[in-house]
Fold this sequence. Notes:
2 domains, alpha+beta, single chain
Amino acid sequence: MSTTSPRLATLAVGVLIAGGCASIAERAAAPSLSPISNPASISGGQRVSMPYPAPQSEPAGANSLWRAGARSFFGDQRAAKIGDILTVNIEIADSAQVNNSTQRSRTTSEEAGIQALLGLEANITRALPGSPSLDPAVGFDSSSASNGSGTVNRAETVSLTVAAVVTDRLPNGNLVIGGSQEVRINNELRELLISGVIRPEDIAADNTIAHTKIAEARVSYGGRGDISAVQRDRFGRRIYDTVAPF
């Protein structure tokens, strides 16, 4: 008997034990917070390119106190440049309900007979066993029915607030924002990510903006820790669900 198989089996058991020990150690320790990084990585590694109108030059007024395009006479404290911070209010209350019902039935009947076959009808009838009849000679009957119904009910409610940083300013004046927030309570860490493109005109006077005014919005809210680990299937179960044919 070859010694390769026992060695492979021992190696596989060792890997499983090591993976289990690592999982236990990971669950025992509190999840670590992510280091503060450039928020541009949240909105994407490359610069956002979007359609924008052709640039227009504004005539300069050397003796004017009013700047072309200004929203107020005094200084505007709202986010407008790369690196500025604004607050994003996320209020999601979505609900959807879909009801479908399908009913179908069909009945089919076909008969075929032989009235005349070169005068050989009597000979064919005598040659066939029993007492067959050529009228009708062939008959088909079929019927089918199907009923289907489906219902989908979904409701989502999210109420969060996060500060985001302006990571880029597009040629048409729109701003690309990105922000993250991490909160750790005991051994559970909750993470919120937000990114998208906004118009400076949509920023409120208190330097806040609603998530409904963010174009290409990407909102992610999740976590990791003891609670998330309990809700997640173990790796053995996930492997079985992947390879199981039924």
